[in-house]
Amino acid sequence: MPYTVKALQKFGPDQPFKVTELERRDPREDDVVIKIEAAGICHSDIHTIHNEWGEAHFPLAVGHEIAGTVEAVGSAVTKFKVGDRVGVGCLVNSCGECEQCAAGFENNCLNGAVGTYNSKDVDGSITQGGYSQKITVNERFVLNIPDALEFDVAAPLLCAGITTFSPLARWGLKPGAKVAILGLGGLGHMGVQIAAAMGAEVTVLSRNLKKAEAAAALGASRTLATSEEGFFEEHRGKFDLILNTISAPIDLDSYLGLLKPRGIMSVVGLPPEALSLHMNRLIGGGKVLTGNNIGGIPETQQMLDFCAEHGIAAVIEKVGVDQVDEAYERVTAGDVQFRVVIDTATFEKAEVSA
Predict the structure, then answer these.
(1) Predicted confidence (pLDDT) at residue 16 exceeds the cutoff of 80
(2) Phi then psi for 46, rounded to 5 degrees?
């Protein structure tokens, strides 16, 4: 039978969040019902619910950084049992049959992966995300959260963690590689930790040195201020890889000049504007400009296990369900250092809006 839970939904891009009663589907034989313990706030949530990335289907609950415990399993579920510590990231379904799914890259499903929220599911309904008490997910898209990771600091790993882990793992960082992390926000602070744990010499590139102390605490060897006069000339050809985590326009030509020959810039931030590029910046030195969008389920599990092994976790602050509108304003204004996570236990005393 379908069941009802409390959730945070918006009914329009300019409306405040409301506590609602949300109906979750009748669990199928291959479904897992998860009691959500923590739900991360991702900037993608904000873009989506403000209708900045195409049509948002209201009323809508967002949230694709989900951590909790298994409350029930379908009759055909083999990977999980009641009480298991689990997580759900950006995907809740895919065709499971195309070459990309077969290779473990469900995020690139050729028939269209199903996002955790604001996406059309196989039954035609619009998926509703993790700002809620519970969620029902096909077992193929449920991940094990190691005991070493607390739920609140593990939740952001399901997006920010895999978004930065995937390109760093893809390009095979060798110990001692000189890696620059461009931007030290929600994505960047994960990139610093992961690259350092992989043995890289990590430099944070920021407009100023305000976050230098925080960067050092995360594992960075140094922080450089890109606004300093002569910066791009002084540091030309210094880095093997630049992980670009910022979602604002940059001068690609100048930043590519910071790479060594055959160096790589991997872009995970998503500016709304198109960026210009002179091709000689790539051809000269045989450099690579590439992008990365989360990862498949196997790689996401690999990331969680890696983070647990190396003591890597998101740096967070927690808020209650009544503080999410304020948290959105603070994230948009840049007033949050790294990540915000919703304490879903606060749903218990929250009153459903009339």
Answers:
(1) yes
(2) -65, -45
Condensed to tens digits (0 to 9), the pLDDT of residues 248-287 reads 899 999 999 999 999 999 999 988 789 999 999 999 999 9
Mapping DSSP to helix (H, G, I), strand (E, B) and coil, where does residue 54 land? Answer: coil
The predicted model scores a pTM of 0.96
User: Are the C-beta atoms of residues 301 and 275 closer than 8 Å to each other?
Assistant: no
Burial of 305 (0-12, 13-18, 19+ CB in 10 A): middle
DSSP 278-339: -THHHHTTT-EEEE-----HHHHHHHHHHHHHHT----EEEE-GGGHHHHHHHHHHT--SSE
Q: What percent of the chain has pLDDT over 90?
A: 92
- The CATH architecture one would assign to domain 3-159+295-347 is Alpha-Beta Complex (3.90)
Give phi and psi for 35, each to the nearest 5.
-85, 115
Distance CA(99)–CA(109), nearest Å, equals 8
What is the dotted CATH code of the domain comprising 161-291? 3.40.50.720
Question: DSSP class of residue 79?
Answer: S
The predicted-structure confidence for 72-123, as pLDDT tens digits, reads as follows 999 999 999 999 999 999 999 999 999 999 999 999 999 999 999 999 998 8
SS3 per residue for 161-216: HHHHHHHHHHCCCCCCCEEEEECCCCCHHHHHHHHHHCCCEEEEEECCCCCHHHHH
